[in-house]
Amino acid sequence: MPAPVALITGGTSGIGKATAELLHQRGYRVIVTGQNPDTIAAAEKSLPEQVVVIRADARSLSDTDRVVEEIRERFGALDVLFLNAGIVRSQPVGAFDEATFDDLVEVDFKGQFFTLQKALPLLNDGGSVIFTVGIGATRGMAGGSVTAATRGALLSMVPSLAIELAPRRIRVNAVSPGPVDTGIWAKAGLPPEQLEMAAEATVSRVPLGRFGTSREIAEVVAFLASDAAGYVTGENIAVSGGAGIST
Ligand SMILES: NC(=O)c1ccc[n+]([C@@H]2O[C@H](COP(=O)([O-])OP(=O)(O)OC[C@H]3O[C@@H](n4cnc5c(N)ncnc54)[C@H](OP(=O)(O)O)[C@@H]3O)[C@@H](O)[C@H]2O)c1
């Protein structure tokens, strides 16, 4: 049997990249996407050479068409779709600007949905779809309203999609990281001193007392991708050091 094929959106750094490395180690043929030329160049250097890196902006439906076409040509089909591309922006409601709002919705929500729609004809029956959501979908944080809303939108799609795709035995699940030290918060638009304070406050709310690692999230994604999770669908698994359940 040919090796299974996995597409990871936002697979050029952090959680997506760690998942690409792990799935590659476990025998998958892996394709990752990202949009920043510098991150792409770094990923091309550090990922195993068999991992295919494609530049595609999650906001662009024509980029998504191009990714799907390239996978069709090179691999013929897909077994695992890890919808992970995402951004975080923190601004109080009074200061939130429309462009940032639109960016969050387009990358974190619209991009995920249409990537699934467009990849679906390529996805084999019995395949696995995993969304990266985040415990922030259901927990409050000052400045995080719109980021949380896009995550909440993803989370609320999971049960309907799981039911809709069950006749094809395609499982649809979500993984919800707690704080993971990937550098995503450094891109959130906070000044450095506020960033440091936010990091300390965040860790103080994690029962296990530390940030998670990308590899720890990747392990759960790899489980959901595998036949070991063959009876798991419509679920959201928090990987948060307990932050998802603490007050
Ligand atoms: N780290 C955490 O604490 C945490 C917690 C909860 C949820 N999450 C979620 O986990 C996911 C992965 O984040 P991470 O922490 O691993 O951060 P990261 O290292 O910044 O990874 C984000 C990935 O998404 C890609 N991406 C961003 N905008 C994109 C766009 N418009 N088109 C295509 N790709 C795009 C990035 O590529 P480029 O560099 O090319 O933009 C990168 O590969 C995100 O959805 C994030 O919201 C993270």
What distance lies between the first and last C-alpha atoms, to the nearest angstrom? Answer: 48 Å
CATH topology: Rossmann fold
Order of secondary-structure elements = EHEHEHEHEHEHHE
In terms of DSSP E residues, the strand content is 15-25%
Regions with little confidence, pLDDT below 50 for 5+ residues: none
Task: Round the mean pLDDT to the nearest integer and report it.
Answer: 95
What is the secondary structure topology, with strand pairs?
Elements: E1 5-9, H1 14-25, E2 29-34, H2 37-46, E3 52-55, H3 61-75, E4 78-83, H4 98-119, E5 123-132, H5 145-165, E6 171-177, H6 192-204, H7 214-225, E7 236-239
Parallel strand pairs: 1-2, 1-4, 2-3, 4-5, 5-6, 6-7
Helix pairs in contact: 1-7, 3-4, 4-5
The structure holds NADP nicotinamide-adenine-dinucleotide phosphate.
